Amino acid sequence: MSEDISPTPESGPPSSTLQEALTKYGAPVPAEIRDQLQRYVDILWEINQSLNLTRHTDYDKFVSRDLIDSLALAGQLKPNEEILDMGSGGGVPGIVIAILRPDVRVTLCDSVGKKAHAMQAIVERLELEVPVYHNRAEEILEDLSFDAVVCRAVAPVRKLLLWLEKHWLAAGRLLTIKGGRWVEEVKEARHHNMTKNVEIRNVHEYETPGNDHPSVILKVWPKGRKEP
């Protein structure tokens, strides 16, 4: 998972605690969830000192980007679903969703070995029952099936559709976070004839601090199948 956007948080002094950032950005969570998120960022930022997993290494950036994105995705999941986080990187959105939605069964994967090993260390220290694979999503979908594949900042829509083209039976549906260029990405995918067998819908739109355009969640599923 690449993170090539560094938003500018709200003006004012930086948040000195997670709770302060949660309040600033209007992202309230129960105390037990907040405490688990605190443990997650503590572990992530510790490991990040030796591995480049994220550039979001303060409370403002974590909440305004990582948590808000993960909350938006979590809201699109049904109770007790099984999801695959494709290109999990430092664990966003997968590990954060596992914390926010303990009813959802999350599997993580990344094709980069150091990222997969780091995620394994994180989930073990958090005592989460979250499998981690050092594989591409397509390889996992050869053997396992899910209700949804989720991702953020992994690839353009065209590439996502190419990777999942032969795996929709196992993937269920795709939920991907996109920024202001999502319309252009869908047009590009259509130009490359990658949309003929799928339905694509913008199912959620939300503001992210520091961006002059809303973020969206695109849902993709095979044509001919009832909308999941």
Please write out the topology:
Elements (H helix, E strand, L loop, with lengths): L17 H7 L6 H18 L10 H16 L7 E5 L7 H7 L4 E5 L3 H14 L5 E2 L3 H4 L7 E5 L4 H8 L3 H4 L2 E5 L3 H10 L6 E9 L8 E8 L6
Report on this model:
By secondary structure, the protein is of the alpha/beta class. The protein contains 9 helices and 7 strands. It has helices spanning 18-24, 31-48, 59-74, 94-100, 113-126, 137-140, 157-164, 168-171, 182-191, and strands at residues 82-86, 105-109, 132-133, 148-152, 174-178, 198-206, 215-222. A 7-stranded mixed sheet has the order 3-2-1-4-5-7-6. It is globular. Residues 1-9 have low confidence and may be disordered.
Descriptive key words:
seven-stranded mixed β-sheet; disordered N terminus; 228 residues; 9 helices; alpha/beta; single chain
Question: Brief overview, please?
Answer:
This protein has 228 residues and is an alpha/beta fold.
Distance between the termini: 25 Å
What is the topology, as strand order, of the major beta sheet? Answer: 3-2-1-4-5-7-6
Order of helices and strands: HHHEHEHEHEHHEHEE
- The number of helical segments is 9
The average pLDDT is 93
**Main beta-sheet strand count, sense and barrel state:** 7 strands, mixed
The geometry reads as globular
Low-confidence stretches: 1-9
Into which percent range does the helicity of residues fall?
25-40%
Rg from alpha-carbon coordinates = 17 Å
Percent range for β-strand residues = 15-25%
What structural category do the secondary elements indicate?
alpha/beta
How many individual β-strands? 7
